[in-house]
From TrEMBL:
<keyword id="KW-1133">Transmembrane helix</keyword>
<feature type="domain" description="Protein kinase">
    <location>
        <begin position="17"/>
        <end position="276"/>
    </location>
</feature>
<dbReference type="GO" id="GO:0004674">
    <property type="term" value="F:protein serine/threonine kinase activity"/>
</dbReference>
<feature type="compositionally biased region" description="Pro residues">
    <location>
        <begin position="301"/>
        <end position="310"/>
    </location>
</feature>
<dbReference type="InterPro" id="IPR008271">
    <property type="entry name" value="Ser/Thr_kinase_AS"/>
</dbReference>
<protein>
    <submittedName>
        <fullName>Serine/threonine protein kinase</fullName>
    </submittedName>
</protein>
<dbReference type="InterPro" id="IPR017441">
    <property type="entry name" value="Protein_kinase_ATP_BS"/>
</dbReference>
<keyword id="KW-0472">Membrane</keyword>
<feature type="region of interest" description="Disordered">
    <location>
        <begin position="292"/>
        <end position="357"/>
    </location>
</feature>
<dbReference type="InterPro" id="IPR011009">
    <property type="entry name" value="Kinase-like_dom_sf"/>
</dbReference>
<feature type="transmembrane region" description="Helical">
    <location>
        <begin position="368"/>
        <end position="385"/>
    </location>
</feature>
<keyword id="KW-0808">Transferase</keyword>
<dbReference type="Pfam" id="PF00069">
    <property type="entry name" value="Pkinase"/>
</dbReference>
<keyword id="KW-0067">ATP-binding</keyword>
<feature type="binding site">
    <location>
        <position position="45"/>
    </location>
    <ligand>
        <name>ATP</name>
    </ligand>
</feature>
<keyword id="KW-0812">Transmembrane</keyword>
<dbReference type="GO" id="GO:0005524">
    <property type="term" value="F:ATP binding"/>
</dbReference>
Amino acid sequence: MDVQPLLAGEPSRVGDYRLLARLGKGSMGSVYLARSRGGRTVAVKVVRSDLAEDPQFRERFRREAAISRTVGGFWTAAVVDADPEAEQPWLATEYVPGPTLHQAVAENGPLPEQTVGALAAGLAEALGAIHAADLVHRDLKPANVLIGPDGPRVIDFGISRVMSSSAMTATGTFFGTPGYFSPEQTEGSEVGPASDVFSLGAVLVFAATGHGPFGEDGTVAMLYRVVNSEPEVGDVPASLRPLVAACLAKKPAERPTPTMILDRVGGAGPQGRQWLPAQVTALIDENTTRLQSMDEVVPATPEPQSPRPPTRAYDPVLPEPPVAPPPRQAEAAGPSHPRTASSKPAGAPLVRKDNPGAVFRTGRRSGAVAYAAMVFLLAYGAYASRGAIEIAENARVIFLLGVGCLVLSGVLSLVRALLPGLRLKVNSDGLLVSRVGLSRQIPWNHVSRVGLVGSGKKQTVAVWVAAGTPAPRSTWWHRVRGYHGGTKVFPVGSTGGLWTRRWQAKRMRDALYRYAPRVYDARLL
Ligand code: AMP
C-alpha cells in the first residue's frame, strides 16, 4: 500500500471515520485509510468536489452506492458505509491490508501458476457476487484487485459505472484502462456481465506474465488490438491458457460465465496464506505492522461533541497535517520497523540481502566510455606530436608523465564503465548498495534523514546519518558525494528517457516511504 501522510487542507474526519493517511488518488477522488469509532479499519473514497457539484453524478452515485452495499461474496471488499448526500459524497469499504495486483506484480514479477489459479477462482466468485446484485464491474483491472492475506478482493464495483457515464468522460476522455476493456466496451456497444469475464481473462494474463494480453503501449494501438487482434497468451502456464483464451473471446456469448470458470478452477481457490509467494506475504505483513503503528503516529482527534449535520462530509484540517512528517533527527535512530537491526542476533548483517524490498539498478555509463575515448585520443595526439613540439629535456619527463596519467585515468574510467552497474536494495532494514559481489550497508537506525535530491538526470538518493555514525565514504567501486551535510549515495534514473526517469524516481520515493517512513523526508529536492 502506498500510504502518504494527509496534507494540510485534507479532511481529518469523514462521517464517523477518523482519517489516518492517504492511500491513493483516482479519477473519482481520493482514497483514505480510516478508522471507525469502534476501531475497524476502512478505506474511504471521497468524491472530488467538481464531480460532487454535478447533480447527475450525485444521483448515479446514490443509486450505485446503494446497490454496491448489497453485493456479498467472499472476494469483494465489502462496502460498509456511504453518504451520497454529503458535501463531498463518500463510500467506505472494508480495508484490505495488501498491495494491489498491479503493485504486487510490478514489485515482484509475475505470480506463480498456483497463485494465478487461485486468483482465477477468487475473482470468478467475486464477479458472480457482483453480477448477482445486478451490477457489472466495468473496470476490472490489476489496480482494482487487492491481494489480501487469505485471497483477492475486488474493489470499485458499481463506482466504475458512475464514472463511466459521468459528465467528465462524456467530453471524450477515455474512461478506464484500455488493455483490460472488452471489445464491446471499447466499441461503445452494450456491456453486460460477459464484459467483466473478458477483463478477468486480461487480469489473469497480467498476473501470470507481467503484461496485459494486448501489450502495454499506446492507447489507440491497444484499443485497436483489443477489437481486432488475437491476445498474447503464449507465456501463460499451459494449465490456465485454455481458460484465459476462452475468457478473452471477442464475442461475449463465447466467453464462459463465472460459474463455468469456477467449475474449471474452483478447487484451486485461495486456501489460507499458502496461496501467495513469500515476497507478497512479506508485503502484507509489513502493511499490517504499519497499520498497527498508525494510531501511535496519528494524534487522535477528539470525537465530535454533538451529532453532525448529515450534509457535511468532513472537517477540513487546519494547517498542521495530522500525520507528523517524518522526523529529521536521530529520534528515528531506533528501528523504523520491528524487523530492523536491533532485533537481530549479534553478528547478523544489519541490512539483510534476503529481506524483500525494492531493487534499483544503474545502467552502464556511456559517459564514462566517451570520457575514456576522449582521454585516449588526447594522450595519443600529445604523444604523436611530441617531436613537433619543442620541449626542454628536463620538461620531457614531466610531459611523458602527464601523458601516462591521462592514459591511466582513461583506463580507470573504462574499467568503471565496463563494470556492471550499481544495485540498490531498499528494504525494511536499510539500504544495501552493491556491485559485483561488493556491498555496503546503510541501516535505517544509522540514518536520521533520507530522500531524493536534485532533478532530471541528476536525481540522487541522499542520506544524513545519525549523530555518532560515520557517513558513507567513497570507495573505488562506489563513489559518493557530499550534499549539505549529507551524502549522495545512489543516482536515480541516470539512464533512460524522461518517463523512465520519472517512473524510477516515483518508485524510489514509494520505496523510501514504505521502508523508512520515520526518516524519509519527502520535502527534499
Ligand atoms: P482507487 O482510487 O480505487 O484506484 O484507489 C486508490 C488506492 O487506494 C488503491 O491503489 C489501493 O491501494 C487503495 N485502496 C482502495 N480501496 C482499498 C481497500 N478497500 N483496502 C485497501 N486499500 C484500498
